[in-house]
Amino acid sequence: MAKRIVIVEDEPAIRENYTTALKRQGYEVQAYADRPAALKGMASKLPDLVIVDIGLGDEHEGGFDLCRELRARSAALPIIFLTARDSELDTVSGLRLGADDYLTKDITLAQLLARVAALFRRIEALRGAAEQREVVTSGELHLDRSCMTADWRGQPVELTLTEFWIVYSLARLPGHVKSRDQLMQDAELFVDDATITSHVKRIRRKFIALDPAFDCIEAVYGMGYRWNSH
């Protein structure tokens, strides 16, 4: 079955170009020009991936608002933000909302398609076939790769796809330091070091919200991060 992608972009030319390119790759695509139309289109069923512009018409942060509403429905839904200027990446990479990837509008169609394909590969790699189901347990952490679920001391941790990949990459080899480059390679991310740092900070906050004493993710100065199981 073809993967379903929703594009929310207020510039008609960009919206049409992305829609055409993705359809040529065999994806099912629905495109919307604003947040209300997108919400209505996704009311009954979420797609497999959403590509959303930050500024939507008169809503300067309409994409942020849409992402909040989608995240309330699903922590694991892959979301790609579109940005018009590099400076906007500072806001997005702060992970106000937990997007999985960030694209500037000068990206080529080939690059866009590669990033979309990378996200879907991550999903398939995590889920795997039933016979390849992998469960990682490290101390109080329990990760189910096939279901993309995380539990800490029996409580579910609502991680995005990218956040799950980072935790999985660290926790499957406790005590081993993973550089930011290695984490990017594991998750097939195309971001800068600061964005990886922001992802890790957001992950920590989610665990600390469940357990104020959480301290399993250690930053190793000049090297990267490691998972310490106690």
Automatic annotation (TrEMBL):
Superkingdom as given in the UniProt entry: Bacteria
One GO molecular-function entry: phosphorelay response regulator activity
Matches recorded under CDD domains: trans_reg_C
Coiled coil region boundaries: none
Keyword Transcription regulation set for record: yes
All residue ranges annotated as the OmpR/PhoB-type domain in the record: 133-229
Protein's UniProt keywords contain DNA-binding: yes
GO biological process entries: regulation of DNA-templated transcription
Pfam families, A to Z: Response_reg, Trans_reg_C
One GO cellular component term: cytosol
Domain annotation Response regulatory: ranges: 4-120
Alphabetical keyword list: DNA-binding, Phosphoprotein, Transcription, Transcription regulation, Two-component regulatory system
Matching Gene3D superfamilies: 3.40.50.2300, 6.10.250.690, Winged helix-like DNA-binding domain superfamily/Winged helix DNA-binding domain (1.10.10.10)
PROSITE patterns in the record: OMPR_PHOB (PS51755), RESPONSE_REGULATORY (PS50110)
Record-listed 4-aspartylphosphate modification sites: 53
Residue ranges of DNA binding: 133-229
PANTHER family cross-referenced by the UniProt entry: DNA-BINDING DUAL MASTER TRANSCRIPTIONAL REGULATOR RPAA (PTHR48111:SF21), REGULATOR OF RPOS (PTHR48111)
NCBIfam families, A to Z: marine_sort_RR
Protein name, UniProt field: Two-component system OmpR family response regulator
Species this chain originates from: Methylohalomonas lacus
